[in-house]
Amino acid sequence: MPTERLPASDPRTLARDIPGMFDALFPQLVPGVVAHFNRKSTSVHGYDPVRQELVGASGLQRAMLFEIAVAAAEQLLTESTEVDWKTCLEVAIERQRRHFDAKPPETLSDADRVVALQVARNLYAMLKHVQGDPESGELIRSPHIPGYQWVASGVGDFSIGTRLIEVKCTRKHFSSSDYRQVVMYWLLSYAASVERGAAEWSECILLNPRLNLVVTLTFSEIIRVIAAGRSKVELLELFAAMIGDRTFHMTMSVR
Asked: What is the pTM of this model?
């Protein structure tokens, strides 16, 4: 597995690598609840999951392969008729180096491009599907995720208005760490809304273009299920207490 470069204060790392925090904040985010959320998944008609044998034919690291696919999908969103693979590779390398010790490939094989293009086309169709009428809101790339106290700010994948869209390209359904990540993003947005009137995420949409899976949930629904009866205010108070705890902060700093 690649080595994380992000500091522990990054919200993505905090959410995915420090599950103990979520055990306290959201004690009911358990496998059965994750399975319940996943049962709400749908697919975009006319698009197929990417066959595993196609993925296996690529010699690239999977994280790099699917980062290239996302970059290709972003080109398609600009109504490009052809994908510029050289640019996709450059974009993917830059993004991967923010998070991992990426080993950049020098070129892309035909097998790499076949997989990346199918994933890209699936993702393009899924984003257009969830957007619906373009007048309902602009599709934003890399939406801002606010920080809180010593937790740094970050970026998400996409958003439409107050709907947060996160893309996962794994060969399995969405995991508890995926839900922890979007819930952390919501919590940081709620803190920003209380402190300075910023917009609060209202809905999360998880997309897996590799499997053609879409899960759409309101954050109020998620919180009602996983927060053990705590209100949003109570969750923020507990989060603030944990973030402000010196022992907890020191533990985070040495991870």
From this structure: 0.88
